[in-house]
């Protein structure tokens, strides 16, 4: 059964052309591709390679565990690289960059980091396969949706960086000015863990309202047209949802930190965002590994059974429509508190392979 058929079954309204998740363009003549399809191909952001096999596993086969350490190494390596380059420019020239330059510099590198993550996830997908892969392949980029996919990346990243620069960037403060203080590192450890929990509270409220409040569902349904998402569909949504994902939820999180007397600076907010977007992209990959969202507070979340695994959001898409479960996208704190956690089918504790573990390659 295709995603389109499932959508028609779940909704009583007839399917519209823009609702189709049909993806055949990659097998057509390249001369017929549109600009956005060529762009996706140029940056190599395809979720799978058509000329490589994807392993398929029975749901009872153990799922390899992917631990926190390699994920932290990946996020910190790519996250700190722009700060190092920024500081190198300051040290070599004696000049810091303006707000306008900072916006373009960090937006370009943020996009590059996301694209690099997509490249690596494609490799992991071909190595470990996908959840529910014995039943259904991953959805591709829709034939009519390449433009929406490309613009969603630039709009989401651009809006978040613009907000960060506007509220927190000061040209008289270079990365080394804050990073040379050990207190900043101690604060960063706490902030990156707490940021995901606070952001997830606001996301949970908004996300669950989109499902439960009848007149709001129309703003969220496009994102649920995919039942087996891939990383490029992370921000595949209508404009109203894009606004909350791009600006609304991050701003409420920033304001909460400010109200708690822990205002975020530009460089710590940048690192918090690296953890958030890493998990957002992973959460739509459907890769068949037991991976919980990286966090400096993962030890606490695991102890309370509040950690978020890849399968949790995958099940939200696969089984959810108007009514769903697993509304969080960084943790299961609020799902656990409000009783909306769903059952895991493949990556439940008894089916996890802790011997033959997976890891997140740095390159």
Automatic annotation (TrEMBL):
Record-annotated Fatty acid hydroxylase domain positions:
194-340
**UniProt keyword Cell inner membrane present:** no
Regions crossing the membrane: 73-95, 101-118, 188-207, 247-267
Q: Which intervals carry biased composition (Low complexity)?
A: 1-13
Name the source's superkingdom: Eukaryota
Picking any one GO biological process from the record gives: lipid biosynthetic process
Instruction: Write down what this protein is called.
Output: Fatty acid hydroxylase superfamily protein
Q: Which PANTHER family match?
A: STEROL DESATURASE
For the keyword Transmembrane, the answer is yes
Disordered: region residues: 1-25
Q: InterPro entries annotated for this entry? A: Fatty_acid_hydroxylase, Sterol_Desaturase_Related
**What is a single cellular component term in the Gene Ontology annotation?**
membrane
Question: Where does it reside?
Answer: Membrane
Q: Which UniProt keywords apply?
A: Membrane, Transmembrane, Transmembrane helix
Q: What is its main location?
A: membrane
GO MF term (any one) = iron ion binding
Biological source species: Pochonia chlamydosporia 170
